Amino acid sequence: MQTVVTKGSLWLPLVLSIAVAGCASATDDSTQQELAQLRKDVDALNLSAHRTRGESETVLGQMDRRSREQTAENTRQTAAMNSRIEALSAELTRLSARVDELNQRLDNLSRSGGSSPGGSGSSGESGSSGRSTPVPTPTPGAPRSSNDPGAEESYKAAYSDFTKGNYSLAVAEFREFVRRFPDSPKVDSAQYWIGECYFNMGRAAASAGQSERSREALERSVQEFRKVFVNYPNGSQVPTALYKEALALVELKQPKVAQARLQYIVDNFPQSEEAPLARERLKSLGE
Predict the structure, then answer these.
(1) pTM of the predicted model, to two decimals?
(2) How far is residue 215 from each of residues 59, 186, 193, 253, measured CA to CA in Å?
(3) In this structure, are 146 and 276 located in the same domain?
(4) What is the rounded average pLDDT of the residues 108-133?
């Protein structure tokens, strides 16, 4: 059977090929456009990300600067407050010492039995002899018996302030206790705690970098600890006061004097709790 080939059948494959090529070309153009749009979108996102990052870094930089400025301001204010507190503490210590001195003078006047001002009048005379009888001037807070219930309260109040770190106030209170209750069995302990207050103030000042204040406080502690030994040689606080005096002397760069105090403890108080501590300290100072 013979196949008949017409003109139409010859053109059909060619037309189909052209149509397919045209579709492919159209598809490529669409893909290229989509890719171009995607690139634009990615570029826009990158630009936005860079811009956001820059803004974030700017804000963080401003926050960091403000934080540093605030920290510096807080430090300055804290330093100013500390300086003010130290000035007030020094003034309180000075006033306490002055009050203590005045109270001591009043005590001396009271004990000497001096007459009160204007005591030469008729109320101070005895009988018909015409001689005036000395009338002791009543002094608030004059020395009282160790049995006075106020002694225990006074001591506890002073010790409470010591434990709270109110050293200047505790010094004034312990001084008042020593003045008012000289016969109390705790009078040597009160004197010891005065030295301990100054010792702690000296160490606190040293930690704060205030070398001059530290030296002054430590020197005062040495004087107050020494009073325990001088004024109450038979008191229970003598070896403790001697040991703490030695520690203060070490910090004041006086090791020879400190060694003498420690050796005194070893020789005269061998059974005390401070004796083994003194021996160890002597070994470290001798190395």
Answers:
(1) 0.51
(2) 48, 28, 18, 10
(3) yes
(4) 38
